[in-house]
Amino acid sequence: MKLDRNTYGTVLLVYLVSAVLIAVVLCFVPQWWLKILLTLALLWVAGWQTYFHMVPDRKPVGDNHVVSAVSDGKVTHIKTVRESRYFQGEVLMISVYMDFWDLHANFWPVTGDVVFADYYPGKHMFAFKPKASEENEHSCTVIRTAEGREVMFKQLAGGVARRIVCYSKPGLAVRAGEQCGIIKFGSRIDYFLPVDAKVRVREGDLVKAVTSIIAEI
Predict the structure, then answer these.
(1) What is the domain count for the chain?
(2) Is residue 106 in some structural domain?
(3) Which end of the chain offers a freer environment for a tag, N or C, measured as fewer CB atoms within 10 Å?
(4) In terms of residue numbers, what domain contains 203?
(5) Would residue 187 show up in a list of annotated catalytic residues for this protein?
């Protein structure tokens, strides 16, 4: 694994703050056992944040027919909805929620060309809420496969997340399993698929980015 290139500053800031707080603890906390406890806790936070922003090296399963997971997380919703931003009709929506313990690097779900990319500043309600899909800050991408099938995925910020990184731009050729960005802290991915897609997950399933199959189209 390697550290995401968009998070060097964030991780460095975590290290600096942790180092300052450890120095304060060592200088001003009188109890030796409390010094050890607080120092270990701060070192754990620094280590966790390093892991949190890592990009895993995994063997991809997606292609132009197989939709692979954009992120790690838990499947929370599978339902038919009306999508009005791009498709202007009924599609199958699958939502995957990422918590603080999931790696937050994101990856292209299918192989094809980006035909639509949009960003919406929005709110920051908790990502597991149903309204979050439309009202929260999000980045929206549509990929068209060689067969003309289209898949949309939406990166949603959560109650804590304040930055979405997405490499989408119209005309960009992408390959399933390669990194497409990252979302910092608790967040969510929504997939919008053709209604005849064969879903390969169920609500409650835990999925892994790149290596889990979401659906076949």
Answers:
(1) 2
(2) yes
(3) N
(4) 66-216
(5) yes
Let me know whether 111 and 50 are in one domain: no
Tens-binned pLDDT, residue by residue, of the chain (217 aa): 788 887 888 889 999 999 999 999 999 999 999 999 999 999 999 998 888 888 888 999 999 999 999 999 999 999 999 998 899 999 999 999 988 788 889 999 999 999 999 988 866 555 455 555 566 688 999 999 999 999 999 998 865 555 788 999 999 999 999 999 988 766 889 999 999 999 999 999 999 999 999 999 9
User: Same structural domain for residues 122 and 171?
Assistant: yes
Give the pTM: 0.85
Q: Which of 18, 71, 168, 187 is catalytic?
A: 187
The continuous run of DSSP H or E covering 213 comes out as strand 213-216
Q: Is 134 within a domain? A: yes
Residue 150 lies in a domain: yes
Length of the chain: 217
**What one-letter code names the amino acid at 40?**
L
Give residue for tokens 């939406």. 154
Query: How far, in Å, CA of 199 to CA of 186, rounded?
Result: 25
